[in-house]
Design goal:
The structure holds two protein chains of two kinds.
Chain A: E1 2-13, E2 20-31, E3 35-40, H1 46-54, E4 61-66, E5 69-70, H2 76-86, E6 87-91, H3 102-106, H4 108-113, H5 119-128, H6 144-157, E7 162-166, H7 174-190, E8 194-198, H8 202-205, E9 210-215, E10 218-220
Parallel strand pairs in A: 3-8, 3-9, 6-7, 7-8
Antiparallel strand pairs in A: 1-2, 1-4, 4-5, 9-10
Helix pairs in contact in A: 5-6, 6-7
Chain B: H1 8-20, H2 22-61, E1 67-72, H3 74-81, E2 86-98, E3 107-112, H4 115-120, E4 127-128, E5 136-140, H5 141-147, E6 156-163, E7 168-179, E8 187-192, H6 194-200, E9 212-218, H7 224-234, E10 242-244, H8 250-264, H9 266-284, H10 286-298, H11 303-340, H12 348-351, H13 356-381, H14 385-389, H15 409-419, H16 421-447, H17 450-457, E11 462-466, H18 485-493, E12 497-511, H19 514-525, H20 542-554, E13 556-564, H21 566-575, E14 578-581, H22 585-590, E15 593-598, E16 612-615, E17 618-627, E18 646-650, H23 651-657, E19 665-670, H24 675-687, E20 693-696, H25 698-740, H26 743-751, H27 756-795, H28 808-832, H29 837-841
Parallel strand pairs in B: 3-8, 5-7, 13-18, 15-17
Antiparallel strand pairs in B: 1-9, 1-10, 2-3, 2-6, 2-9, 4-7, 6-7, 11-19, 11-20, 12-13, 12-19, 14-17, 15-18, 16-17
Helix pairs in contact in B: 1-11, 2-8, 2-9, 2-11, 2-13, 9-13, 9-25, 11-13, 15-27, 16-25, 16-27, 16-28, 17-25, 25-28, 27-28
The chains are: A alpha/beta, B alpha+beta.
């Protein structure tokens, strides 16, 4: 069963001669519960595709359907609610809120939704990601690995259908990167979630169930 | 290893900075212009005030010449004029001195017309001309008033004067012109032609005559007294009488400087305000700048080079704002100085203009801008690039975070507030300083009561005095008929007039009884304090002492009989305590009683109640004696009446005693709502007269009061408003920087599911918290300041100051703060959230 279905997705930046075709008619289906790696050169359209799936950006043409919900024509407020409930993001540069503690950062999406966290699930995640003893620390007091584990916990906390990770190990050394990715994979397996990850690292991409290659805005599998 | 000391690169970097960040540098140049403008204004105003004090000394001196040598012969004047240190000279040939007793304490020289000299003593006719024909004379208005000379070209003038040999003369002239001059209060010249002078004194200009006054202007007008003596020595002349111009005296220049000092003090405020303003603007991009410095340091830039770079940047910013700043300051000076320095025909802003204030302002602006650039960067310049780049991250403590971990929007807003504690404190501190300063100024301004001032300085709305009693230097001329009965009648008929009170006075020679003589002698021989008697305390007034001695020896004295009614009588009864008897209106009006006035000191120093007095053959009984305060009398009396007793009678009784005597002065009260029409009438009436009367307008007092009141707060007020402006800019800066700098953060929130409505609420909450912080700081501090500090300050401010709690500046500032706090972040949010989340997160594709 596909959790993500993409039809003829196009996204252009700029106009006239300087126009860049970031996505040039992408058709893609991502199976639920699987780990999909997207690889490609810089500027090939990987991140744009990921952002389209996550509702962070809107396409010029085509349609994205996530967990049965079409994002086409959604207003910003609907997209925000969609992101909050259906998608978890993990970025290369962590994107944590520096003024919030680890615990507050993890629970931030739930705070925005006004939802009550499940303490058992919260404990489970923080144990799993080795954050239980650093919950009151600020992001600035953590190592790179610690920050990325916090970002993963934040992505998991609202039990999203799909986890989108953009170079989650890009800012980490190789050993920490391996650990973080291991934890990420373990998490999605544990909670039966779908993981879509962008990476330049072919070695890491080998850990995925499926590798999708993008070149010049087109899919080459 | 050699340090990299190439400083040229700094200039290149500065140029590039201006090229790549035009908006920020334009704002900085505007700030520098404002700072320069304020410095220029403060220095120009201070210079004008100092200049006005010096000009006042010059008026007191009576001449613009640096040195005046008097009593010179023609030969001595010629020799002196040839001294190489002398730039130019003017000459006055004095024929004699006016000795008419009505001239009073003023000194008026009868002299041969010399246009150049007349210019230096500001005594050139404004009506008519200088004398050209034999027998013509030009006079100043004070002299004309004292002598009762008509204001008509061709009017006859009779003068009593004494020549240099001491011989008295009485001669007649024809008036050809007159003038009013600020230098003529105590001294003046009466101009005649050389031909007229020869007729009066044939050898007035002979070689032996020592009647020349030489006005000397020096190339270097410093240490005038020393130069005056040296010039005489250099020219081989004996010690000759001379005076030096007060305006060039070092001690007086220092005094003028001290008096003008309060006008320079706001420069300190400009320094602080300017620093805060520029510092706040520089701080908007502090994160980017820090990264920039880290990069420069990583490339090997030394602390010295960084300092040089910052100084060159400060210089460039100062230079960019210099011309508009100078223009702003000059225009401000043009608009304000005329209100501070009053009483000049020329515009003081232009009259006292010089280049020094501009140069000082430019230097001070550069210093201020340099401080703002250098101080925050000194620490950075000694840090390694890595240290420079270390973000100021929050550190966890005991009670870090919220227990349940759920972050509501208000809590998130609070966290944001705590993130910018330093800038919030700076903004709040500046705002507090501005509000306190403006509250202080406003409370001082509103505490000064016009009613109190007017009632004390002008117990009645208008004073109309005979021209011979226009100033206290003049002696009232009893023969004058400047104020006529027709004038009184016309005034009484005016619809605006509520009352016209009149006063006449007459000096009469009387002889005291032995009883009175003994009482008065004993009175003045009583101890004044442990060191002297009452009489000895008046040693500074020789005419008074001579009068008392004459009285002690013979009982003879010159009494002043005053006929009065209305406001004058009310003034006496309210301000002069009775020492015996009391007032009985019916008895006083009956015509058989007088009120006796003695010294303004405890005890009976004149006739007492029940005693009798004979005036012009009529016997009067003393209704009561009082401590006489003669402040209500215009002009002064003869030297013989310096020691006197006052006998107050109703005006009707006075007219019976001295029929035909003119009015000395009138007091007019009007319906204040019709003040303008009445003053218009008075002005027209005065212009239509061919004789002098001295009219003191209610609006003059009001204008004086308003000018004084404004002067007390004007400069500080302008600085306070600028400080408030800076504080508001700082606050806007805080709000804008707090929004604009979080473009990525907002994108992150949105990527995590925050809706636009939630983001707007967050902005409103943050703004509300900022406003709340301001209110929590401003309200108690301002109230405490207004209740605790201001009463003491106002008590010591002035005798017309009455404390009242008034914190209007706070009530104006708070809504402005609230509106800004709620709107500024929301407006910025619209710009900050433009573009996709991906773009704002800075995710490269």
């Amino acid at each position: 069963m596909d959790i993500v279905t993409i039809h003829n997705l196009k996204k252009y930046f700029g106009k006239g001669e300087s126009q860049v075709k970031a996505l040039d008619g992408i058709n893609l289906a991502i199976e639920k519960g699987k780990f999909t790696a997207i690889i490609g050169a810089s500027g090939s359209g990987k991140t744009t595709l990921l952002n389209m799936i996550g509702g962070i950006d809107t396409p010029d043409e085509g349609e994205v359907i996530v967990d049965g919900i079409s994002l086409r024509g959604m207003k910003e407020k609907e997209l925000a609610v969609f992101r909050r409930g259906k998608v978890g993001f993990v970025y290369q540069n962590f994107n944590l809120v520096p003024t919030l503690t680890v615990k507050e950062n993890i629970l931030f999406p739930l705070s925005l939704a006004g939802s009550t966290p499940d303490p058992v699930f919260f404990n489970e995640i923080t144990e799993l990601l080795h954050l239980a003893d650093r919950l009151n620390a600020y992001p600035g007091e953590l190592s790179g690995g610690g920050r990325q584990r916090t970002a993963i916990a934040r992505a998991l906390i609202s039990k999203p259908s799909i986890l989108l990770a953009d170079e989650p190990t890009g800012s980490l050394d190789s050993k920490t990167g391996q650990n973080v990715l291991g934890l990420l994979k373990l998490s999605v397996e544990t909670y039966h979630q779908t993981l879509v990850m962008i990476t330049h690292n072919l070695e890491l991409a080998q850990m995925a169930d499926r590798v999708v290659r993008i070149e010049d805005g087109r899919i080459h599998e | 290893m050699l340090a990299n000391n190439n400083l040229k690169i700094c200039r290149t970097l500065v140029r590039r900075d201006f090229h790549f960040h035009p908006a920020k540098n334009a704002v900085l140049a505007l700030a520098a212009a404002l700072v320069t403008g304020l410095y220029v204004f403060v220095f120009l105003l201070g210079g004008a005030v100092k200049g006005a004090f010096l000009l006042n000394y010059q008026y007191s001196y009576g001449s613009t010449s640096h040195i005046l040598y008097t009593g010179l012969t023609e030969h001595q004047a010629d020799v002196l004029s040839q001294h190489p240190g002398i730039k130019n000279t003017v000459r006055l040939n004095t024929v004699g001195t006016l000795t008419d007793p009505m001239i009073g304490q003023r000194s008026v020289k009868l002299a041969v017309t010399d246009r150049a000299y007349a210019d230096t003593v500001l005594s050139v006719p404004s009506t008519g001309r200088l004398p050209e024909q034999p027998g013509e004379i030009a006079l100043d208005e004070f002299t004309m008033g004292s002598l009762g000379v008509l204001y008509e070209v061709g009017a006859p003038v009779t003068l009593h004067w004494t020549d240099a040999a001491g011989q008295a003369h009485t001669d007649s002239f024809t008036l050809c012109g007159w003038w009013a001059s600020p230098t003529n209060f105590s001294e003046a010249c009466a101009w005649i032609t050389a031909d007229t002078a020869r007729v009066l004194i044939p050898d007035y200009d002979s070689e032996d005559a020592a009647g020349i006054t030489l006005g000397v202007n020096l190339y270097q007008p410093r240490d005038l007294e020393h130069q005056a003596v040296q010039i005489l020595k250099d020219q081989g002349l004996p010690e000759l009488a001379h005076t030096t111009n007060l305006a060039y005296d070092e001690a007086w220049i220092q005094t003028a400087g001290k008096q003008a000092q309060p006008y320079y003090t706001p420069a300190v405020l400009v320094l602080v305000c300017g620093f805060l303003m520029i510092f706040a603007i520089v701080q908007v991009t502090s994160d980017r700048d820090r990264a920039y410095f880290a990069g420069l340091k990583a490339q090997g830039m030394t602390p010295r080079q960084i300092r040089r770079y910052l100084l060159e940047k400060a210089a460039s910013v100062t230079l960019s704002g210099l011309f508009p700043g100078i223009l702003t300051g000059f225009l401000l000076n043009l608009a304000v100085t005329g209100r501070v320095v009053v009483g000049m025909e020329e515009n003081p802003a232009l009259y006292f203009l010089s280049w020094q204030p501009f140069a000082a302002a430019a230097a001070c602006s550069f210093l201020t801008v340099s401080f703002a650039y250098l101080l925050p960067s000194v620490r950075l310049s000694y840090m390694t690039p890595a240290q420079t780049l270390l973000p100021e991250i929050p550190r966890s403590g005991h009670n870090t975070g919220i227990k349940n971990g759920i972050v509501t929007l208000p809590r998130l807003a609070l966290r944001t507030l705590s993130r910018s504690k330093g800038r919030t404190a700076l903004s709040a501190g500046t705002m507090l300083a501005a509000v306190l300063l403006l509250t202080s100024i406003w409370m001082q301004y509103t505490s000064l009561q016009e009613d109190l001032y007017l009632s004390a300085l002008s117990p009645w709305d208008y004073s109309i005095a005979d021209a011979s009693a226009a100033t206290s230097y003049q002696r009232y001329n009893e023969r004058n008929q400047g104020i006529t009965q027709d004038m009184v009648n016309e005034l009484q008929k005016r619809p605006e007039v509520l009352s016209v009170s009149a006063l006449k006075s007459r000096e009469v020679s009387l002889t005291a009884s032995d009883q009175l003589r003994k009482r008065v002698v004993d009175y003045y021989n009583q101890p004044f304090d442990e060191t002297m008697t009452l009489k000895e305390s008046q040693a500074e007034f020789p005419a008074w002492t001579a009068g008392l001695d004459r009285f002690s020896e013979s009982g003879d004295y010159t009494a002043l009989v005053i006929g009065l009614d209305g406001e004058y009588l009310r003034y006496i009864l309210e301000n002069c305590p009775f020492t015996s008897g009391g007032f009985d209106a019916e008895a006083f009006a009956g015509g058989s009683y007088v009120i006796a006035g003695g010294a303004y000191h405890e005890g009976i120093s004149c006739l007492a109640a029940g005693e009798t007095l004979e005036l012009e053959g009529r016997t009067f009984t003393v209704l009561g004696s009082l401590m006489h305060d003669n402040a209500y009398l215009n002009g002064s009396d003869s030297p013989e009446a310096s020691f006197t007793f006052y006998y107050l009678v109703p005006l009707s009784v006075f007219d019976e005693l001295f029929p035909g005597q003119g009015y000395r002065q009138l007091a007019v009260n009007i319906d204040h709502s019709r003040q303008d029409t009445f003053e218009e009438y008075l002005s027209g009436y005065e212009q239509g007269l061919n004789r002098g009367v001295s009219i003191t307008l209610r609006s003059d007092y009001q204008e004086n009061f308003e000018n004084s009141r404004l002067n007390m707060v004007l400069v500080q007020g302008i600085i306070g408003i600028v400080l408030l402006g800076i504080a508001v800019l700082n606050f806007i800066n805080l709000l804008v920087a707090g929004t604009v700098s979080r473009r990525r953060e907002f994108a992150l929130y949105q990527s995590l599911g925050m809706t636009s409505a939630q983001l707007r609420r967050l902005m409103l909450l943050e703004g509300s918290f900022y406003a709340l912080v301001m209110a929590v700081i401003l309200i108690p501090a301002t109230v405490a300041f207004a209740l605790g500090v201001m009463p003491v300050l106002i008590k010591n401010l002035s005798w017309v100051a009455v404390y009242s709690f008034n914190i209007t500046p706070l009530w104006i500032a708070l809504p402005v703060i609230l509106i800004l706090a709620l709107t500024a972040p929301l407006l910025c949010l619209r710009f900050v959230t433009r573009g996709t989340i991906q773009e704002r997160l800075g995710i490269p594709e």
